[in-house]
Amino acid sequence: MRVLIVDDDPLVRAGLTMMLDGAQGIAVAGEAADGDEVPAALDRHGVDVVLMDLRMPRVDGVRATARVRARPGAPEVIVLTTFDSDEEILAALHSGASGFLLKDTPPQQIIDAVLRVAAGESILSPSVTRRLIDHAVGHARTAQDARETLKRLSEREREVVRAIGQGRTNAEIADEMYLSVATVKAHVTQILVKLGATNRTQVALLAHDARLA
After folding, report:
1. What confidence tens digit (pLDDT) does each residue in 70-90 have?
2. What is the model's pTM?
3. How does DSSP assign the chain, residue by residue?
4. 112 CB-near residues (< 8 Å, 6+ apart)
5. C-alpha distances in Å from residue 30, one per residue of 2, 98, 106, 181
6. What domains sit in the chain, N to C, each tagged with a CATH number?
7. For the chain, what is the mean pLDDT?
8. End-to-end Cα distance, the chain
9. How far apart are CA 61 and CA 70, in angstroms?
10. Hey, is 23 helix, strand or coil?
11. DSSP-assigned letter for residue 36
């Protein structure tokens, strides 16, 4: 699993590189010191996951993430930052990030997040999850609107949405529904396309709005 580290602090980049290069199945493909360096870095290296800082001097992490996710065959993006304001969380997720972790996250959890996001899951720090749910409760569409949106899906796909809303991983969904993990991944891909969503977090919020989870 090849990772690009984007952070304007060289000590942070060095620490993350040392940690990830020591993990089984992960290799750091490159580094970038600012968001404006990311396109060239992606052109040079085959990358599966980008670890993205939020606040950088020239191009911030939100804009850089949006540019990454707009590329054909785009890698997944995990925002890794010291900041967790509601505006930054939502901006990062709307730009297409599949994960949002704080920099005080334990090393093993960061490693696990890289592997899980590369496998198609979404990862949020517990504190971020709580705040995101609180925001959703305060700004939720009506349950009826959410249910109407879910009518675009097949019955099986709605079952997968319910499981995503309950925080299940692909492997857990496969076990519960007696499916292969590959089949679950295919369902998730179709769900994202039909709903016009960019990641599982948006699907989970829709499940909560529809009172499925």
Report:
1. 888 889 999 988 866 667 777
2. 0.69
3. -EEEEE-S-HHHHHHHHHHHHTSTT-EEEEEESSGGGHHHHHHHS--SEEEE-S--SSS-HHHHHHHHHTSTTPPEEEEEES---HHHHHHHHHTT-SEEEETTS-HHHHHHHHHHHHTT--EE-HHHHHHHHHHHHHHPPPHHHHHHHHTTS-HHHHHHHHHHHTT--HHHHHHHHT--HHHHHHHHHHHHHHHT-SSHHHHHHHHHHTT--
4. none
5. 9, 20, 22, 30
6. 2-133 (3.40.50.2300), 141-209 (1.10.10.10)
7. 86
8. 32
9. 14
10. coil
11. G
The low-confidence residues of the chain, meaning pLDDT below 70, are 83-86, 126-142, 213
Structure tokens at 194: 């039909």
Residue closest to 99 by CA, chosen among 116, 122, 128: 122
CB 52 within 8 A of CB 80: yes
| CA–CA dist 70, 93 (Å, integer) | 14
